[in-house]
Amino acid sequence: MQPIILYSHPYGPNPWKVAIILEELNLPYETRFVSFQDVKKGPFIKLNPNGRLPAIEDPNKDITLWESGAIVEYLLDNYDIEHKLSYTDFAAKYETKAWLHFQMSGQGPYYGQAGWFNRAHPERLSSVIERYGNEIRRVTGVLDSVLKNREWLVGDKCTYVDLCFMPWQRWASKYATDAENLDKDFPHAAAWFKKLSERPSVKKVFADQDHAIEESTGL
User: Fold this and answer.
1) For the chain, where do the domains classified as CATH 3.40.30.10 start and end?
2) How confident is the model at residue 218, as a pLDDT?
3) Domain 4-84+202-215 adopts which CATH fold?
4) CATH 1.20.1050.10 occupies which residues in the chain?
5) What is d(CA 180, CA 7) in angstroms, rounded to the nearest whole number?
6) Domain GST N-terminal: where (predicted)?
7) Alpha helices in the chain, H assignment, sequence order
8) What tens digit of pLDDT does each residue of 30-56 get?
């Protein structure tokens, strides 16, 4: 099998979400970092007209894809043959899809805005920072309310949706409102995050991201 090419960035959590799934499925892949300046122009814009990361090229299927959720679903449909990370049961299959959509629409955008207004925005806007910090607490609370009664988000095993929350959730304690009390206020989500952090795939990808951040210049 030829390596899947993953276009990524050290700081962007979404490409690392795809990397975790690739690791879990033991798929060969090659990471190519693209600067935030270069995603809006050629040659990358030809891969993703939206000019965002990630994107993949899979030479084994002759396909190029963008949007992390679509990429994750593609990898599962084509390579999770034994359903290690997914279900065949009708209800569970669509429940996992619901959680994936929540991650993409509820977690990622709000956490991303929290990071931007805390770290990159030229003007410090306290009300905006508070709004998005509160959203981190709200989303973490949703996770906590479900994990209070079960070990995983869907069914009786770790699935792709548990893993897809990880790259953004690792920054929750940095940008949430009242961040120092986040784990205490949401202990079930904290325990779930800690358990997932010990998975070999997550440990490797988080270490790879940390290394990429340390080495990044001009990205």
Assistant:
1) 4-84+202-215
2) 60
3) Glutaredoxin (3.40.30)
4) 90-199
5) 34
6) 2-83
7) 13-24, 44-47, 68-79, 90-102, 108-119, 126-147, 160-164, 166-169, 172-175, 182-185, 187-197, 200-215
8) 999 999 999 999 999 999 999 999 999
Tell me if residue 173 falls in helix, strand or coil. helix
Question: What are the pLDDT digits (tens) for 165-212?
Answer: 999 999 999 999 999 999 999 999 999 999 999 999 999 999 999 999
Q: Which of 180, 173, 170, 164 is nearest to 210 (CA)?
A: 170
> What CATH number is given for 90-199 in this structure?
1.20.1050.10
Lowest average pLDDT, out of 21-25, 40-44, 99-103, goes to 40-44
Q: What is the dihedral of CA 132, 133, 136, 142, to 10 degrees?
A: -100
**Cα(171)–Cα(16) distance, integer angstroms:** 13
